[in-house]
Amino acid sequence: MRSVIILASLFCIVDSMKSTKPVIRSGSPFQNAKIFDYNVVAKGIQPSFLREAELKHGRLAMLSSIIIPTLEQYTDGLGINQFQNLPNDLQLGIIGLMFLSEFASMFRGWENPRDKLFRLKQDYQPGDFGFELWNKEDEETLIFMDKEINNGRLAMIGVFGMIVQELVTNKQLF
Fold first, then answer.
1. What is the pLDDT of residues 27-72, one digit of tens each?
2. Which SUPFAM superfamilies does the annotation name (predicted)?
């Protein structure tokens, strides 16, 4: 339990440095392609809010695309059922850690909900961890950010396929 508290406190550290302006690129896998029109489908929603959600879900999907097959190699059951087989205390610790990390992210990047509900701060970089990982003005970093968003999109589709396959066939992936 002590390790969960220590890890949770690490997630709650808020970076005192403010970025100047968030970098939000299209992330399109094709040159000059407009795949998602924010003005029609998501009218009135901040593009940075959508990017934040897409980055978080993409990162979780990238982790899941590795974790599900790995669990199946070392256990007898389906990878999608392994979390519910954990002890209740461990499940609670994992969910608590996820809650604290999301709360720290909301505290760091969201506007006060009394003033503006579901709005990100103007200087918040979507997907920011709270500490400087790279130079946001570097062209190589911008390319890396595009690769991250595209790999996350692919991972979301891939993990969805893995989950559906296990639910339909009731067999392991490999």
1. 655 555 555 555 556 667 777 888 888 999 999 999 999 999 999 9
2. Chlorophyll a-b binding protein
> Which residue ranges make up each domain of the chain?
46-169
- Chain centroid to CA 171: how far? 28
Cα(103)–Cα(57) distance, integer angstroms: 16
CA separation for the pair 108, 102 (Å, rounded):
10
Which residues, in sequence order, are bridge partners of residue 110? 120
Q: Which of 17, 13, 14, 26 is nearest to 153 (CA)?
A: 26
Name the residue among 132, 115, 103 with its Cα closest to residue 20: 132
- pTM, 2 dp: 0.74
For residue 59, which of 142, 148, 140, 136 has the smallest C-alpha distance? 148
- Kindly give, in sequence order, each residue whose CB lies less than 8 Å from that of residue 5, ignoring residues fewer than 6 positions away: none
Q: For residue 126, what pLDDT is reported?
A: 83
Q: pLDDT-derived band of residue 86, with 50, 70 and 90 as boundaries?
A: very high
Distance CA 106, CA 97 (A): 14
Tell me if residue 110 falls in helix, strand or coil.
strand
Nearest 5 degrees, angle CA 36-CA 39-CA 43?
A: 115
- 3-state secondary structure at position 119: coil
The pLDDT tens digits for 106-131 are 888 888 878 777 788 888 888 777 66
